[in-house]
Every structure is written in C-alpha cells, then in structure tokens.
Amino acid sequence: MSFLIRTIDFTASGREIVRDRELAQSTLTIGRAAESNIHLPDLAVEQHHAKLSLSEDGSVSVEAAGTLGFTHDGRKTTSTGFDAGKGAELAFGSYRLAFTREADGPVLVTITQAEQSAAGTDATGGFALASALPGKRGMAWALLGLIVIAFLAVPIYTHLNREKIPPDYDRSGQTVMDASWSTGALSLAHHGLEDNCEACHAQPFVSVRDETCLTCHEAIGDHADIDRQLTGRGPMSQGDALQWAVADMFGKEGPGSCTTCHTEHEGEGRMEPAAQKFCAECHDGMDSRLTDTKLGNAADFGTAHPQFQAVFHPNLGSDATARMSLARKPQEEHGLKFPHQVHLDPRSGVSRMAGNIGAKKGYGSALVCADCHTPNADESGFQPVNMEEDCESCHSLVYDRVGSTFRTLRHGNVDQMQADLRAMDRAPRRPIVTGRRRPGEYARGGLYYQNFGRPARSYIGISRALSKDGVCGECHTPTSRNGKADLMPVHLRQSYLLNGWFDHKEHQQEDCTTCHAAEGSKTSRDLLLPEIAICRDCHLGEDAAEAEVPSSCAMCHSYHPKSVATKQAGTKPMGLPGDKKPPKPDRSAMLSRRPG
Question: Residues annotated as region Disordered (predicted)?
C-alpha cells in the first residue's frame, strides 16, 4: 500500500509545475506543520489537521485531529471514508486534495490550490506597488544601470580626473564612492588612509606597486642585496608557480614584493605578520645556493632552526666582538668579576648582608634578580646595571668622613678617583724630629722653612684601592698603565642576539631561572643565555599543533634591516655596525619564478 503525492503549482505566467513523490506507507498526516506528509502552508489549516488511513480493500478514512474539520465533496465534516477507486475530493483551507486509483496501483493524491477570484484581485490591486511601478524586468535593468553608474563609472571617472598628489594622511581622498570597493578595514598602521584609497591604489584595476609603498616608506631597507635574494630563493613548487603565473596575468608583483608579506584590508588592529613559508622559501637550504653565507638554514623553529649565536667580547680589555654558537659554551671577558651563584645563594654571606640592610634598601631575606636588574620603559628588556643604584648598597665607595658627611669615590673614572685620594694629603704634616732646633735660617720659625717629606700615604691608598684585594678589585680586574695602577676597561653588552629580539614582558609569568641558569653560575664569564632547546619547551613552528605557543619567524625576526633591532631602549639597530645607514631601498618585486 502506497500513495503517490502529486503537487500542481502555477507560475505567474500561468505555466503549470508538477511535482510527484511516492510514499510507501498506509497512513498520512495532513497539516501546516513542515513535518506533515502532506504539507499545506495555509493559515486556515491547523498544524496537525487530519490523519488519513488506507485499508487493504482500497478504502480511505480521514479523521480530523481538531475541531476545524474539512470538506468532503462539498460537505463539511470532521471524519469521512470513501473508496479511492471511485474517487473523492477533500478541501483543507484553500487547498484541494483529489483522490483516484487505477487497478492495484498507488492511491493518487493530487494537490492544487484554489485560485483567488478575479473580483478580489481587482479590488486590492490598486493598493499594490505593482500598480505604480514598472515591471520587475524593467526595474531590474534600471537598478543594474544605477549600480554600474554609482559604483563603477563614478569612481573610475573621478579617479582618472583627480589631482595627482603624494599620499597625505591629513587630506581626504578625491575619488568618489571608492569606499564601496573596499574589502575590509585597514590596519592600525594605515588607518589614516581609510578615506584616501588612491594613496595606495594609484592606478585603477592595478594591484598596489612597490614604488607606491616606497613613497612613504622611503627609508626602509631591502632584506639583502637583490642579486643575493635572487640566488638564495629556493625553487617553487608546481602549485606556487601556477598561482604566481595567474597573479602575473593580473599584474600582481611578486614574489618578494611588499604585498607578498604585507596584506591589507584584513581588519582593524595590527597588521598580520608574514607567514613562516615566506621566510623558508629562501632560508630553507640556503647554504646550497649561497655557499658563502654565514647564516644557518632555517625553515621551522621547532624542527629546522640553528642554535642561537651570541655576540660577546672574547678578549679582556678589548671592545672587539665575536659571534659563537651557544652550543660551544662561549666565555665572555667583559672586565667584571660577578659570580651570580654567590649573590643568589640564600645561605651565603651576601644574603645575610642583604637581610641586614633589607629594611632600608628594599631587599628581602636574600637577593633576587629584580634587586639589580631593572626593566626598561616598555619592560621588553632591562636598563644597564648602575653601580651607584644597584651595587653600592653593599659595595660601599666611602673613603673619608668630614663631620657627618661621607665622601665617596667617583665610580667609572680612575683618574678622578686617584685625584680624590691624593687630595686627602694636602694638609701640612709635622716632621718627625728630636726636638732640637737646627741652626741657621732653615730652622723651624725661619724665613724659608718647609717640609720636604714625601707624601707617601695617598699613593699607598691608591695602590691598595686598585689592587686585587682592594675596594676596586672586588669587582674589577686590576692592571697597570704607564707604570701606574689601573683597571681593565669594562665592556657590557645590552643585547647578545644580533639578528633577533626577545620581549621579556611577554614572558613575565615565568621565573628568571626558567631560562637563565644564574643560580649555579660561579663566574661572570658565563653567558647566561638559554639555548634553543629551552625555548622549544613552549615555542615550536607556526604549524605545530602540539606547541603551547606556535611561533612564526616574524615573532623574533624582522625582514627589513633598519627594523631588525632589539626592543631595548637606547640601543642601535642590530646588524648595522656603528652609525652605518641601511642600504638604499631597491625594488625587489619581480624575483625569478622557477618551478621545482
């Protein structure tokens, strides 16, 4: 037993649309609910209006679920029965259900909707918008023309006839309706150009060119010499080569253009950093293409990144630097003696001293890193250690007392320190004599009396201060200069990583000793920098699912030389020795596109 449900609808032009579906079941539900077997979307029909059953002998029975009922062959009823072979018509609201059956086939239920009378249509037609507006086809063409004029013709015309001026943040754009072409909000770096599209889009239907970017970013430097970039770039995959071939057809520059890395209209906020793949295209296996490079191959921080290389002072008293992998455990000769282990050990004498003076100086029961290392303004790094502020609480430089005032040595200037100590000996001294007066005019009280004794006390004090066990020798390395006692010059670096940066503020939830093994360092020659394995406890490559912090290359490195600098205040750009200026900008957009 089954039903064949046939629904007949009509288009606006009167064309008939017939849809058939067969239900292999003996009961059907009729109602306005979407889950009904016969769905009748009419407010005159209840959600669950009636239930229809087919028996073995071909008779059909219909029972209304509610009180509204239905019409059977023109008679109002709530229940009925009939022979499907003889046919019948049921009415539910505006819908008509005609039942027929041929031989032993399924019961055919034809559903149609009664047409509204012409009189009713004429009575209400005057109030419809269709009576006052053009036809739908005409309106569609009119609106299409309006869209073309407003959003295409007007922007193009005003763009071509605008005044050609350099980009200006303080001046609104001259192109009308160009904002309708925007694909999204600009980043914070370019938010001032929201109403000045032509500042970047200098030519209609042409992607942003490198020379347009350099109009504002004229001081930016290329990553490397253009010839070395061409040589260092690795071969493309077939997929990448195809993508760039299509992009080239539409005039897009690259790879290596500004827009390859810096994509705009991605939403408000900071511009998204370059993807790891952008850097790996050159730095993965680069030593096989640039055989003279000193850089290690890098493609993924978690799996393919060289050990960190530190820049330090290898020779005592010299400001010359060397660069060495941390795996080789480099030792620095900066001219100071400062064992971290002694200062941080809570059982040491230093800790007991810190506990004694802690109430006045703000120390705890033992010294901690923050007692000497003060964060800089943005807390990304630390200010240089200052003797007077960070050390003198324990390492006093007092050498004399005048009444209630203590005189201290001038730290950092050996010549001034020696002059201060000599000044202590300016007062006249009585010579050691027997008490008998010498005859002649040079006797005491004579006209030309003078004490010719050697002022040895000040020189002895200077020698002691600059000795290995003296007040200066506690922290400095003694030496001699032109036969006189002196100290080795001190060379302390503020940053040891040449081509990257590290933001301490972003890691303030960690203890210092998580990365820096200061508690066990017994000599100041140790470089207390973490090796890459420590960083990999949290940081892995950009696509590493198991990483606590997925890290792309741009998290620690910058592409342009001028901005490859530590975030510590007061330091020069890293990678630019002395005051050397960055290389002149060079358009490097159209690099070779070689399929792999």
Answer: 565-596
- Ranges of each domain in the chain: 3-116, 159-274+577-596
pLDDT in tens, 578-594: 344 444 444 444 444 44
Per-residue model confidence (pLDDT) at position 302: 92
Question: Which residues are CB-neighbours of 347 under 8 A, at least 6 positions away?
Answer: none
Q: Give the torsion sign (CA, 230, 236, 239, 245).
A: positive
CA 560 distance to own-chain centroid: 16
Structure tokens at 36: 């009904």
Task: Give the pLDDT confidence score for residue 13 in this predicted structure.
Answer: 74
Taking the C-alpha atoms of residue 11 and residue 308, their distance in angstroms, rounded to an integer, is: 74
The CATH class of 3-116 is mainly beta
Q: Which two tokens stand for residue 522?
A: 């017994």
Contact present, 573 and 564 (Cβ < 8 Å): yes
Alpha-carbon 570 to chain mean position: 24
CB-CB contact of 568 with 577 (8 Å): no
Answer yes or no: are the C-beta atoms of 286 and 297 closer than 8 Å. Answer: yes
What is the three-class DSSP state of 209?
coil
